Amino acid sequence: MNFAQPMAFEAVAKNGTITKAAQLLRVSQPSVSKHLKNLEETYRVALFERNGGVMELTEEGRIFLRHVGGILFHLEKLKEELSPTANLAKSEPLKVAGSYAASALLLPSVIANFKRKHRETPIIL
């Protein structure tokens, strides 16, 4: 199982149709259908009852949704925790003052160099 499969399952379960789930996930409808089929084959259960274009969860589907919701929640938390900016403390603004000559000649290049290295830090002149 890859992570696209439970994401597709959850999107269909919450939105009721493969079309809406595909739009939400920005993937094709056949891709979502394939993910659902692979899950049902892997677990050997029917996760949805197909009534026209509407997808209704079976009892097994409700059990699966309960578990997959927790898994996806933890994956999102992991993604946030491992993001490069997660462990950085929010920096205070850099306050810069200078005389007219320094401000006109020296500060623009120094500030540009600083901003390239510290994109998140606001600068107050």
Task: For the structure shown, list the relevant keywords.
Arc Repressor Mutant, subunit A; two-stranded parallel sheet; 125 residues; mainly alpha; two-stranded antiparallel sheet; 2 domains
Notes on the structure:
The chain is mainly alpha-helical and 125 residues long. Helix content is 61%, strand content 10%. It has helices at 4-15, 18-25, 29-43, 59-82, 100-105, 107-117, and strands at residues 48-51, 54-57, 94-95, 123-124. A two-stranded antiparallel sheet has the order 1-2. The chain has a two-stranded parallel ribbon with strand order 3-4. Helix 1 packs across helix 2, helix 1 packs across helix 3 and helix 1 crosses helix 4. The radius of gyration is 25 Å and the shape is rod-shaped. The N and C termini lie far apart (53 Å). The model has no long low-confidence stretch (mean pLDDT 87).
Give the topology string: H per helix, E per strand. HHHEEHEHHE
Largest sheet report: 2 strands, antiparallel
Give the domain tally.
Answer: 2
Helix content: 55-70%
Note poorly predicted spans.
Answer: none
Q: Briefly note the CATH topology name of the largest domain.
A: Arc Repressor Mutant, subunit A
Principal-axes geometry comes out as rod-shaped
> Strand order, biggest sheet?
1-2
Query: Architecture of the largest domain, CATH level 2?
Result: Orthogonal Bundle
Number of helices: 6
Binned strand content:
5-15%
Summarize, please.
The protein is mainly α. It has two domains: 4-82, Orthogonal Bundle (Arc Repressor Mutant, subunit A); 94-124, no CATH class. It contains six helices and four strands, in the order αααββαβααβ.
